[in-house]
Amino acid sequence: MSDAAHKIAFQGVPGAYSHMACQAVKPDMEPVPCASFETMLTEVQEGRANLAMVPVENSTAGRVADIHHLLPSSGLYIIGEHFHRVNHHIMAPRGATLDGLTHVHSHAQGLAQCRERIRKLGLTPVMHPDTAGAAKDVGAAGDPTVGAIASRLAAEIYDLDILFESAEDDEHNTTRFLLMSATPEIWMYRHILMIRRCRMQWKNYAFTAPRMRCMFLAPIRQVRRGPSRRSARNEV
Fold first, then answer.
1. Which residues are catalytic, by number?
2. Is 156 within 8 Å of 135 (Cβ atoms)?
3. Residues 34, 43: contact at Cβ < 8 Å?
4. Closest Cα to residue 195, out of 181, 209, 175?
């Protein structure tokens, strides 16, 4: 197998929630950080990575808008899905205090998922391209008045103190990821249908389910037009 066969692309820098989702779903694969969603998809399209971990929706803040217009033309196949529990933490450079913070940086989704906590703490939210990237920049700047909202892994990687744990407004805050590949995996078809039948567990089912069904239909039809299980086995 080539090196690419062992790689899974994600958008963001090390410590991102997508990075953690890669570790949870494919612990045997090498996570490949990408600067943008476009780059992430291109890594798979051009064969430099085998899979992409794609965030599409959050139980608190809704869909991840930046990715949705890219998926229909990506030519990639949905071969799995992962629900990742998201714990946001407010972090800052070593020695900083929560009372001393004035601004907090994070991705738009991170800020939206902690909106009430940010308001109660009297902090000014500042939008950043991604959560872990915000932690990285805050750590590099070293300003004790500026914090970030990101994962515990990001705090460890960028040597930041966690000043407030679990800052998300919803204690069940969860992000839904799609696992995408340049080639279909036929055996996943029934599994995806089963997941769709069990969608009642997802919060706000009545609102999200129709959109989820629309999102699944086109890729599933592509998968059904792919090689048969027998021919796929013979090609391996």
1. 175, 177
2. no
3. yes
4. 209
